[in-house]
Amino acid sequence: MAKIKKNKKKVKKNNNKSSTATKTGKFTVKKNDDNRIVCLTTIYKGKEYLNIRWQFKNDDDEWCFTAKGITIPMNGMAEEFIEKFKKNF
């Protein structure tokens, strides 16, 4: 039986305020009472991105982000993604 190695990589906390993303637009799509998808555009280090993320309600009835989601640069790739999404759904 194979052993599973745990990733022991140390993660440095980034206290540099210039690396935080600025939200420029947001909308949500409700899946059910406890889950939703949040689509937002952000600017991070001078570049614009489209973020699509899952959120859930915690025990305190607050919305929290999960690790599920994608981030797409707004360099034509996001626009292509949106157009293909509209055509197929």
What spatial form do the alpha-carbon principal axes imply? flat
Task: Give the helix/strand class.
Answer: mainly beta
Low-confidence stretches: 1-18
Biggest sheet features: 4 strands, antiparallel
Mean pLDDT: 77
Short recap of the structure:
The chain has 89 residues and is mainly beta.
Features:
89 residues, mainly beta, Transcriptional Co-activator pc4, Chain A, four-stranded antiparallel beta sheet, 1 helix, flat, disordered N terminus
What does this structure look like?
This protein has one helix at 77-88, and strands at residues 22-30, 35-44, 47-57, 63-73. The chain has 89 residues and is mainly beta. The protein has a single domain (22-88), classed as Roll (Transcriptional Co-activator pc4, Chain A), CATH 2.30.31.10. A 4-stranded antiparallel beta sheet has the order 1-2-3-4, with no helix packed on it. A hairpin with a 5-residue loop joins strand 3 (47-57) and strand 4 (63-73). The radius of gyration is 17 Å and the shape is flat. It starts with 21 loop residues before the first strand and ends with a helix. Mean pLDDT is 77; it is low at 1-18.
Give the secondary structure arrangement, pairings included.
Blueprint: E1 22-30, E2 35-44, E3 47-57, E4 63-73, H1 77-88
Antiparallel strand pairs: 1-2, 2-3, 3-4
